[in-house]
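Researcher: I'm preparing a figure for a lab meeting and need a structural model of a single chain. I don't have an experimental structure, so a prediction will have to do for now. The sequence is pasted below. Please return the structure as tokens so I can convert it later.
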Amino acid sequence: VRRLTSEGIGVKALVRPGSDTANLERHGAYVVRGSLMDEQAVAALMRGCEVTYHLAGLTSRTSPTRGDCLRANVDVTERVANAALTAGVKRFVHCSSAVVYGVIDKPPVDEASPTRSDSPYAESKVMGEEAIRRAHRLNGLPAIIARFPGVLGYGSVSWIGLLRAIGKGGFRLIGSGRNRTHTVHVSDLLEGLTLCGTVPGIEGRTYNLASDHPVTVSDLVNTIAAELGVTLSGMRLPALPYAMLHRLNGLTYRSTGRELPRANTYELFLSDKVMDIARARRELGYAPTFTLVAGLRDTIRRHVELGEL
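Model: Understood. Here is the structure written out token by token.
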């Protein structure tokens, strides 16, 4: 909202009836109160809009059920897409997640790489993408899908669990730490999303939006420890038991629809989660600039201000 209003663009935001809207209104957003389950509220939100950024969704942080995820990330996505079609929006940017790739066997992954539904959240994000592609193919929804990894920067909540675990001391790395992972700084992500909303002639495309380079998990963990002033233990835990638990969880979920407790908690340590951003560079002109250290400092500063670390 700050990014768009700072450029003189009018912004509407759908907000739950009981939510504090002071921050949104301070930055110039026009607030529509209602629920994403309310078709009339969503229709009112869309009227007069040229571009829709659909970022609302239920994440895995609260351990939601499969039904919760499907309602929030599939049913709501279809409702919002239908409202956008009715309102005649010129561009619909659907925000997805790198979670759709699961544990990656052959890094890096690009937009054509296979997806996996190994958890309620991942399954709902895959199905949400399918709903958007269907609306584009059958009804002409001018849609773009943006996939991105965990977000760093002021306001991010993606890394609070890892930050707290390292901050308590005694944290031990799982595996060698030489496997790589991708992040993205919020400023780079906003640039990518803005390009998805404005570059002409890209309807129907999917884009990976991530940082310029992946980092090793060891570098990520050590950088967090340094920023928090914590000394890490030199002892490490073997990765194999966690990898076996994760694979068993995927098989269990696909066959029964149920997850094993905490099985997805350790995914960061189990593979190279590297995203190919060549298409976004080539077709959008996407050029991320922020470093891991800058992103982590922004993230930690915000959590410290809120008393969460």
